[in-house]
Amino acid sequence: MSVRDQTRADATRADIAARGRPPWALPVVASAVTAGVTATAVALAFALTGASSPAKGGTTARPGASVSSTALAPPPSTALTGVTDPCSLVTRATVDRLVPQPASSADGTGPMRPGTSRRCDWDQPGHWTDVVDQVRHLSVHLTLDGPNDAGAADPRAASAQHDFTLLAEDARKRSGDYADTRPTSQSRQVFGPFRPVDGLGIEAFTEEYRIIEGPPLRTDTGFVELTAAYRNLLIEISYRGEDTSAGKPAEMSVAPLPATTLRAEALAVARELVTALGRCAACRR
């Protein structure tokens, strides 16, 4: 499943260390570079409407407006029997747009069968342009129900819908408004709003947050995760980005890719996945 706890911060620091860059060469947002690439996607992918419901019990959530787009038709009620070549569900054109010069990896090959999961990662560990050092990462994690999950007598049995419901409840409770983004010596997560997603033809939501750490290691990384239940398949999409401006170490600035951009791109990937699954004759009974 997607990483939804403090280990995200550790992973981010490990990524930075693996890239071998000094602390000042951390990634930031350079809007002049990203705006041209993402403005169209932001405009077409979603519009903000309405408001979501508060969290169920415990902490009161600060939900954001729902994310909407041109509606896709609901999928049939029959179960998927497999997923053919899961990592190809996201087109190369989309990967190249979101993660320039990507290095890809997957935790398996071939068709995905019931009772299994598959993670596909595309990573841009650091790419210098004339203006910024860009870092982008796209991850798609799919979990397909086992043959007995849907009708299991044990209510604790895992299923796409069951897992989706639990993840949505947890995300609502974490929902925030980026109230405190001051850098501190300790790495920490600052959460943005929980947002239901309309228009995919299936239940979905986005969760967003930033990982911030102050001197001497300055990081500010933006994340958006989109989670959906498509028939008996749990879909988890994570997109993150940060850029470091060019210049002398003392003059460099670090900031995350805007959450609006991250949300729009995660939604674009989700629509592509859902559309591809709907056309996959080999995936259904």
**Any idea what the shape is?**
globular
Tell me what portion of residues adopts beta-strand conformation. Answer: 25-35%
Number of helices: 5
Overall pLDDT confidence: 74
Q: Tell me the total number of β-strands.
A: 11
- Encode the helix/strand succession as letters: HHEEHEEEHEEEEEEH
In short:
The chain is of the alpha+beta class and 285 residues long.
What structural keywords apply?
285 residues; alpha+beta; nine-stranded antiparallel beta sheet; two-stranded antiparallel sheet; globular
Describe this structure in words.
- Strand 4 (117-128) and strand 5 form a beta hairpin.
- Helices cover 25% and strands 28% of the residues.
- The strands form two sheets. Strands 3, 4, 5, 6, 7, 8, 9, 10 and 11 form a nine-stranded antiparallel sheet that branches. Strands 1-2 form a two-stranded antiparallel ribbon.
- It has helices at residues 7-19, 31-45, 92-98, 160-174, 259-279; strands at residues 47-49, 66-68, 103-106, 117-128, 132-144, 188-191, 195-196, 203-213, 219-230, 233-245, 254-256.
- Mean pLDDT is 74; it is low at 1-62.
- With 285 residues, the chain is of the alpha+beta class.
- The longest helix is centred in the last third of the chain and has 21 residues, at 259-279.
